[in-house]
């Protein structure tokens, strides 16, 4: 099991993003999430991380398990994370930007996030983000990294019977 979680919170045509103050994505816009505590499930972790990093308390039925992301690097490092999306109602008040202990939270338009050569987001996000938003199915996304850049990417659908963490709608 992977030890990290990441969630992209959507309100209308915007995603709540965090410009991180800490590595590994220092200075880049990313979803919210983090490392699972010992004995914690991915579902419990993402609910905790959303609350800690944003102050939002999102009901589990508004969160979708979108699969996993894994990577290996040229220095032999490997890792992975559980990937989620959440949708909040358009009338939920959440004004940004907000300075937090992790960085700066701000709403970013989906169009901005999907722009070609957007170097303001983590380098893996452009590869899986559109599919994650548009497809109901879960996928495993695999990356091979060299010198901090993606040199290979592939994905495959995760069969519905394999470990859905939240109910798919």
Automatic annotation (TrEMBL):
One of its GO terms (molecular function) is metal ion binding. InterPro entries: NUDIX_hydrolase-like_dom_sf, NUDIX_hydrolase_CS, NUDIX_hydrolase_dom. Gene3D superfamilies: Nucleoside Triphosphate Pyrophosphohydrolase. PROSITE patterns: NUDIX, NUDIX_BOX. GO terms for cellular component: cytoplasm. Its cofactor is Mg(2+). Pfam families: NUDIX (PF00293). Keywords: Hydrolase, Magnesium, Metal-binding. Residues 1-139 form the Nudix hydrolase domain. Belongs to the Nudix hydrolase family. This is Nudix hydrolase domain-containing protein.
């Amino acid at each position: 099991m992977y030890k990290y979680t990441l969630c992209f919170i959507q309100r209308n045509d915007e995603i709540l993003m965090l410009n991180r103050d800490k590595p590994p994505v220092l200075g880049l816009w990313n979803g919210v999430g983090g490392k699972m505590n010992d004995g914690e499930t991915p579902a419990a972790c993402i609910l905790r991380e959303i609350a800690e990093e944003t102050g939002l308390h999102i009901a589990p039925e508004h969160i979708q398990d979108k699969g996993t992301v894994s990577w290996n690097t040229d220095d032999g490092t490997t890792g992975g994370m559980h990937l989620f999306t959440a949708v909040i109602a358009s009338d939920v008040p959440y004004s940004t930007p907000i300075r937090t202990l992790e960085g700066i939270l701000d709403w970013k338009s989906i169009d901005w996030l999907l722009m070609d050569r957007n170097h303001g987001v983590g380098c893996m996000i452009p590869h899986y983000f559109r599919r994650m938003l548009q497809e109901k199915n879960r996928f495993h996304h695999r990356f091979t990294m060299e010198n901090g850049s993606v040199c290979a990417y592939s994905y495959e659908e995760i069969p519905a019977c394999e470990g859905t963490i939240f109910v798919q709608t």
